[in-house]
């Protein structure tokens, strides 16, 4: 039977406040830092129009325009997602604005020579665009394709209800994130600012087992959560946050001015930000997630000057005591289970199951050899 495994590498020591990860570690957007005057301006703005002069993030992109004077359209491209579009009036004409992205290995977009328009029928209002471009060949850097974007402004001959570009459907802008320098906020479809542009990060929060949508937010004071209505339900003051369910978030807190994790703690909050499990000593890396069959994660705790690892569940029950140098996670897909290869202070390795029971003797070998032998024993016993 084919083995399937997943190894999760855990950081030993790091700054709590500089974590990045899917679940909810604090991170910085990395954009250009704003002056205090600019910060005050964007944080107090009520509409996007009030900060139009600061929306220049896409100004250096290639441009294709059928409008003789398109300067006033520039700010809108900063608001567009990959497959969004605006319909904007200019004088007696209307124009559709969108970002065109070209992806290629060793190829970049040099220019757009023409955009061909085709309307499905006079009444349906479906516009299909075909982009004719010129490509520049470059040396391939890395394994991922290069992506080149261009701002496109196309004159409309009639009103439209939908848009597709090279066969890909686009959606009319309905609101979304605003990024100004190193700050983020949210605007609605009418370009009213509904979340102040004051956060270092706003992004979709990784969830599982729910139809509800949450957003991860981070500021200088820490990480928090907004619900699908952009209401703050967890104040941005924690070092990392992990989703468990709609009424349960595991949070981490600790000093942000020390590399040591000696005072780091983990607790559980409900959606009203009430503490429903007292804080325990420990730290969960931002790359971890409770989205697994046993709802367990590797966590760490300082013991003197050593950072040791253990395993706990989403109720903060300790499954494996934090006394190991390193713990690596492996899946048992057929059983919807997982096991752990733990390393002691003698550089010996053993297997422990998801109930915390030791399954093999410690051996001075390697993670790979121990997990391979254990998988083989599971196969022989008919578990896999």
Topology:
Elements: H1 36-44, E1 62-65, E2 84-90, E3 93-104, E4 107-119, E5 126-137, E6 146-155, E7 162-165, E8 168-172, E9 175-180, E10 183-188, E11 193-199, E12 201-204, E13 215-219, E14 222-226, E15 232-238, E16 240-245, E17 248-253, E18 265-269, E19 275-281, E20 296-303, E21 306-313, E22 318-324, E23 326-332, E24 337-343, E25 349-353, H2 367-380
Parallel strand pairs: 1-6, 2-8, 5-7
Antiparallel strand pairs: 2-3, 3-6, 4-5, 7-8, 9-10, 10-11, 12-13, 13-14, 14-15, 16-17, 17-18, 18-19, 20-21, 21-22, 23-24, 24-25
What would your notes on this structure say?
The protein folds into two domains: 16-28 and 200-325, no CATH class; 36-176, no CATH class. With 384 residues, it is mainly beta. The protein has helices at 36-44, 367-380, and strands spanning 62-65, 84-90, 93-104, 107-119, 126-137, 146-155, 162-165, 168-172, 175-180, 183-188, 193-199, 201-204, 215-219, 222-226, 232-238, 240-245, 248-253, 265-269, 275-281, 296-303, 306-313, 318-324, 326-332, 337-343, 349-353. The protein is elongated. The strands form six sheets. It has an eight-stranded mixed beta sheet with strand order 1-6-3-2-8-7-5-4, with no helix packed on it. The chain has a four-stranded antiparallel beta sheet with strand order 12-13-14-15, with no helix packed on it.
């Amino acid at each position: 039977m084919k083995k399937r495994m997943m190894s999760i590498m855990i950081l030993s020591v790091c700054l709590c406040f500089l974590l990045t990860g899917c679940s909810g570690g604090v991170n910085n957007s990395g954009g250009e830092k704003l002056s205090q005057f600019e910060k005050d301006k964007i944080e107090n703005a009520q509409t996007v129009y009030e900060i139009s002069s600061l929306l220049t993030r896409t100004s250096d992109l290639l441009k294709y325009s059928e409008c003789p004077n398109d300067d006033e359209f520039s700010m809108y491209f900063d608001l567009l997602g990959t497959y969004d579009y605006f319909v904007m009036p200019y004088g007696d004409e209307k124009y559709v604005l969108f970002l065109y992205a070209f992806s290629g290995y060793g190829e970049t977009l040099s220019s757009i020579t023409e955009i061909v328009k085709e309307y499905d029928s006079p009444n349906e209002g479906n516009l299909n665009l075909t982009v004719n471009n010129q490509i520049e060949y470059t040396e391939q850097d890395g394994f991922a394709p290069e992506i080149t974007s261009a701002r496109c402004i196309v004159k409309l001959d009639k009103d439209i209800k939908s848009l597709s570009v090279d066969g890909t459907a686009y959606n009319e802008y309905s609101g979304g994130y605003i990024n100004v320098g190193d700050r983020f906020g949210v605007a609605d479809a009418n370009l009213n600012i509904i979340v102040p542009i004051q956060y270092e990060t706003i992004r979709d929060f990784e969830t599982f087992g729910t139809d509800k949508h949450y957003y991860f937010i981070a500021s200088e004071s820490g990480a928090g959560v907004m619900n699908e209505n952009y209401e703050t339900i967890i104040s941005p003051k924690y070092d990392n946050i992990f989703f468990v369910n709609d009424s349960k978030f595991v949070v981490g807190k600790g000093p942000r001015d020390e590399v040591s994790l000696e005072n780091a703690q983990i607790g559980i909050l409900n959606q009203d930000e009430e503490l429903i499990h007292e804080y325990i000593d420990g730290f969960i890396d931002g790359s971890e997630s409770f989205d697994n069959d046993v709802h367990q994660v590797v966590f760490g705790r300082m013991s003197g000057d050593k950072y040791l690892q253990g395993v706990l569940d989403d109720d903060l029950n300790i499954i494996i005591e934090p006394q190991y140098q390193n713990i690596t996670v492996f899946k048992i897909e057929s059983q919807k289970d997982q096991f752990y290869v733990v390393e002691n202070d003698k550089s010996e390795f053993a297997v422990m199951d998801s109930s915390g029971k030791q399954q093999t003797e410690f051996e001075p070998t390697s993670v790979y050899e121990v997990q391979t032998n254990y998988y083989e024993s599971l196969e022989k016993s008919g578990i896999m």
